[in-house]
Fold ROK family transcriptional regulator.
Amino acid sequence: MASTLLTPGSNAERSRQYNRGLVLGHIRREGEAGRAEIARASGLSTQAVSNIIADLLADGWVVETGRRSGQRGQPAVTYAIRAEAGAALGVEIRPDAVLAAWIDLAGTVLHSARVALTRARPEDVLPVLQGLPGRVAGCSLIGAGVVMPGPVGVTGLSGQASELPGWGGIDAQVALEEALGLPVTVENDANTAAMAERVMGAAQGIDTFACLYFGTGLGLGLVAGGEVFGGAFGNAGEIGHIPVPTPEGPTRLEDVASRMALVRLLAEAGLHPATGDDLAALHAQAPPAYLDWLDRASTALGHAVLLLENLFDPETIILTGALPPPILDDLVARTPLPELSVSNRPDRRHPRLIAGRVGRRAATLGAAALVVNTALSPRLVATA
């Protein structure tokens, strides 16, 4: 039978889980909250909230944090998320390595690991995943997010060099869940980086934003209403392939505004940075090749900003990923912000373009953050 999406109250168990997510989501946003406050914000009755809080206390998901004085009556008990109630695992599968990170419900990094690979075929990667710890710092895992490069399914962008060999012929979701023994969400690096910024970085408290991610190329993560927007087939955000005008004619955005474009221009000038620290050191020297790239990249990003703002209407656009913070700051400062944009408005709460704070591990941490975000958000689940 085909799956259908029902209203929150049409199934008792679904309704209970959805309302539990409403309560957890409000507490997470506010840091701590009382029952009456949660009831007003969620639209639930105070009695319903009290029942949910009782369940969350019994399950160890929330803790009492104190009492807050009101205008009348007894001071209200306040509650906060118990960070150690569970942990989430984030895994990034690269052609040469598996990166892993474990975070708690507050987004604190508990542990991280890197396992080098000579190949990244399923028979090489899955045994590595089977050996990852299922419990860290006393916290049991509630799920895993896995980052894999390349578009989902066969598309006009298939066959790129960054794709992993051998994975196209298997059901990756099933194979990963069997290896890890956990529920798994598979995402691309830009989407997970966006979620990392929301859970632990520059987008905390922001529900709708765009995230330009500097990885192998240039990707785009879209978050709408606090959830990743993946598109019909999970491939929304392939912004690096859109053409932008340059003095030499239309060129793909990521051929101008990406880490690989920067490294290429530096190499042509006889400079060969091998790591992010090398790039940071070169930034401090400000060689002409870097300044040339900054000029070209920021101009190209200005076109991308115009496109994103007028199509998506985000609260802000965040730059994050595998570029050192000073370079991201330079791009934010130099990228022209078009006047003819729906985002050019006087009542903004956030700058139109900001630098991310998570750093070069944004995709790996974001894969774990995706699990935390799901656990602490209301969610309508299809039923058979």
Summary: Residues 1-9, 152-162 have pLDDT under 50 and may be disordered. The two ends are 6 Å apart (CA to CA). The chain has three domains: 12-81, 85-194+365-375, 204-357. The longest helix spans residues 288-312.
